[in-house]
Amino acid sequence: MVGAAAGPTTNRRAAPRAVMWFRRDLRLADNPALLAAIEAAGHDGQVVALFCLDDHLWAPAGDNRRAFLLDALRVLDASMGGRLVLRRGDPLAVIPAVAAEAGAQAVFAAADFGPYGAHRDAAVAAALDASGRALLTVGSPYAVPPGTVRTKTGTPYKVFTPFARAWLAEGSPAPEAPPAQVRWADLSSDPLPTPPTPTATLPPAGEEVAAAAATRFLGARARGYDADRDRPGMEGTSRLSPYLKWGCVHPRQLLAELGDSTGEDAFRRELCWREFYADVLHHRPESARQALVPAMGAMAVDPPAPDDGFDAWCAGRTGYPIVDAGMRQLLAEGWMHNRVRMLTASFLVKDLHLDWRRGARWFMAHLVDGDLASNQHGWQWVAGTGTDASPYFRIFNPVTQGQRVDPTGTYVRRWVPELATVPDRFVHRPWDDPAGPPVGYPAPIVDHAEERAEALRRLGAVTDLPGRAGTR
Question: pLDDT tens, 425-469?
Fold first, then answer.
């Protein structure tokens, strides 16, 4: 039982024969690796439900993501009658030790395609092999595992649209029902760490609440997703990203329930974007830290400085309401509306001329759904260093974008209460209000028109840029 040590089983006839290593699949339903472990254990055997708390992943995660993970682990433990085995340490030592303690010949896990995860699994597999055991990966956190779809010449896709066509053609198997009964092994467990105090109000975690959230979205909002998803002032998105991050729900389960309406097609496409970015990171692991387009990596950015605007951006004090609303939502909820993520990122990169990696790190420190592939490549898309050759020219105007996606200021007023009484026509440009600027709200820290021109000047200085096709 997580949180209290339990003695190892003494009934050797019922000795565990398989280890299920949970990672980003914290659920019992539609879990191919778990089903394979149950089959390997056999009718009279037992399955060790193991989660290794790896300090390499735990240490850099923000408090919001840590708190949500611990909540998800508690729920998972309860769903298996308190038999989740938590061990804290280096998986290279922990996994072989647990397999030996359990008398298991195989450890089952969903494949990990991230840079660290792939390296870790190769090392663990080698260590298990040295002791006559095996690491068997079954399934993945994705509907279509990264590396599966390729061009006709066998190379990875670099552009989303053709990837999406191939991804849709590949399809995914139907979801599996949860196992009817599992004989969980009773091994000793380390206690869960004391939960950190999250910096935001987080959603509840776990498979059951994830399924309920998915049902609500699919039943009430999915068909209008294409029209509503860009309106941050309304509940038009799924809010499923934290559950997808930790595998409380699998994308395959969502895809199986989607129909053919334009809204559902749009949501299907968003799931595909998540898988596209995972595929890109799988093939180009260095892109987690470096520009995917090397020429763009050479573009001039301003060095960190006390007055560079970064602190004002983090705090939601830039003087641009849609940017400030998004940054304050991030601090309050550990989540930000996807459209606003693009607008806040564009402001950092193209109005403040700061390195996209600084913003990506801030997001990862606060996002409860922080996913390396999606976060880093979303930032690279905005910065023009990633998978699309032209987005750098898409310099979002924070005023006109705010007017477009939040025309009555509903979203802005929720997160920037200083603007509560500003008329709709001035809520995204409060400095023009004849009544004067609202008390306590800052003036814009930069002039967007000037910084747009500067951003394009810096882009013009980049040499050897592929696909240069004029401004937008």
Answer: 999 999 999 998 899 999 999 999 999 999 999 998 987 766 544
Do 133 and 105 touch, CB atoms closer than 8 A? yes
| Distance separating alpha carbons of residues 405 and 401, to the nearest angstrom | 6
**CA 339 to mean position of chain CA atoms:** 15
CA 218 to each of CA 140, 243, 284, 337: distance values in angstroms, whole numbers, following the listed order = 23, 15, 34, 18
Closest CA to 320 of 233, 398, 411: 398
* 44-86 pLDDT, tens digit each: 899 999 999 999 999 999 999 999 999 999 999 999 999 999 9
State whether residue 385 is helix, strand or coil. coil
DSSP 48: E
Environment class of residue 196 by beta-carbon count within 10 Å: exposed (0-12), middle (13-18) or buried (19+)?
middle
Q: What distance in Å separates the CA atoms of residue 207 and residue 111, rounded to the nearest whole number?
A: 20
Show the 3-state SS of 313-365. Answer: HHHCCCCCHHHHHHHHHHHHHCCCCHHHHHHHHHHHHHHCCCCHHHHHHHHHH
Residues 6+ apart with CB under 8 A from 312: 318, 442, 445
The DSSP line for 216-281 is HHHHHTGGGHHHHTT-TTS--S---HHHHHHTSS-HHHHHTT--SSHHHHHHHHHHHHHHHHHHHH
Q: How far apart are CA 145 and CA 252, in angstroms?
A: 11
CA distance 419 to 401: 17
d(CA 455, CA 462): 11
Q: Give the tokens for residue 143.
A: 């509907």
CA distance 109 to 139: 8
How far, in Å, CA of 124 to CA of 120, rounded?
A: 6
Classify 141 in phi/psi space as left (phi over 0), alpha (psi -120 to 50) or beta. Answer: alpha
Residue 134: φ, ψ to 5° = -140, 145
- Do 339 and 444 touch, CB atoms closer than 8 A? no
Q: What is the pTM of this model?
A: 0.94
Phi and psi at residue 369, to the nearest 5°: -100, 15
Strands of 16-22's sheet, edge to edge?
84-88, 46-53, 16-22, 106-109, 134-137
User: Over 80: is that where the pLDDT of 119 sits?
Assistant: yes
Residues whose CB is less than 8 angstroms from the CB of residue 208 and which lie 6 or more positions away in sequence, other chains included: 75
Q: CA gyration radius for the chain?
A: 24
Query: Three-class SS of residue 86?
Result: strand
